[in-house]
Amino acid sequence: MDLITETYLGWDPLTHTVDCPNPTWDVAEIRRTEGVRPLSTGAEQHACPNDICGHADQFARVQVRLLCRGCGTVHTLSGEALTQTCTTTATTGWGQTPTRYGDVWLWPGRPTAPGRTPSQYLVTRQAATLTRATLHGIITAYRQADGTRRWLAGVEPDDTGAHQISTLRWRHASNALDTLAEAAEWTATIADLPQRPLVVAV
C-alpha cells in the first residue's frame, strides 16, 4: 500500500512560461515504440547476464507528451518499459476534493479496501493545495488489541519533532481518539493553544 506522504508529497508540477496566459495542459498523449540502444563498438551487443531481465539492444519505450497551447510549452516524458495503470480517485485517494472538518481540511489516502474508508488523512488549514509548505497535520487509524479502531493525530511537521507518525516527525501528537471527527477537531485546536515558553536555568 502506498504511504499517504508519497501519494501527496514530493511531486513537482510541470512548469509553464512565467507569462503563460492560460496555464493548463492539453490532452495528454501516450506512445509506445521500440527503442534501439547505440552500440559502443560494431561487434559489441548490449545484453543483461540475468536470465529474467530483458535488457538488450532493443527495448520497449513509453513516452507521454503534454502541450500547453497558451505558452507553447511541450513536456515529453520518456522511459523504458514503464508500468501503466488506470484507476480512479476512489481507489487512490489522491485527486479527491478534501473534506472540511471545522477549520481544517482532510485529504484522504488510499482506502483500506475497495469501498472502504481510508485509514490515513493529511490535514491543511485551507482547501486550495496540499504541499509540504501547507501541510498542517496527519491523522491515522490503528486497531487496539481487542480490534477497536482508534485514531492518532500529529500536528506541525518538524524534522526535529518528538513524535514520529508515518514517515514524518511532528511537534505535537494526540492520545488515542475515538473518531475521525475528534481527530480532526484536535488538529484544529492544538495549533491555537498558546505555546509554553522555554526557560533555561543558568
Spatial strand order of the main sheet: 4-5-6-7-8-10-9
Tell me the β content: 25-35%
Secondary structure category: mainly beta
DSSP summary: helix tally = 3
The residue ranges in which pLDDT falls below 50 over 5 or more consecutive positions are none
Q: Write down how many β-strands occur, each being a DSSP E stretch of 2 or more residues.
A: 10
Topology:
Elements: H1 4-8, E1 29-36, E2 58-67, E3 74-80, H2 89-92, E4 99-101, E5 104-108, E6 120-124, E7 135-143, E8 149-157, E9 163-165, E10 168-173, H3 180-190
Antiparallel strand pairs: 1-2, 2-3, 4-5, 5-6, 6-7, 7-8, 8-10, 9-10
Q: Can you characterise this structure?
A:
The chain has 202 residues and is mainly beta. The protein has two domains: 29-80, no CATH class; 88-190, no CATH class. The protein contains three helices and ten strands; from the N terminus they run αβββαβββββββα. Strands 4-5-6-7-8-10-9 form a seven-stranded antiparallel beta sheet, with helices on one face. A three-stranded antiparallel beta sheet has the order 1-2-3, with no helix packed on it. β2 (58-67) and β3 form a beta hairpin. It is globular. The mean pLDDT is 82.
Please describe the structure with a list of short key phrases separated by commas or semicolons.
single chain; about 200 residues; mainly beta; 2 domains; seven-stranded antiparallel sheet; three-stranded antiparallel sheet; 3 helices
Compose a concise summary of this entry.
By secondary structure, this protein is mainly β. The protein has helices spanning 4-8, 89-92, 180-190; strands at residues 29-36, 58-67, 74-80, 99-101, 104-108, 120-124, 135-143, 149-157, 163-165, 168-173. The strands form 2 sheets. It has a 7-stranded antiparallel sheet with strand order 4-5-6-7-8-10-9, with helices on one face.
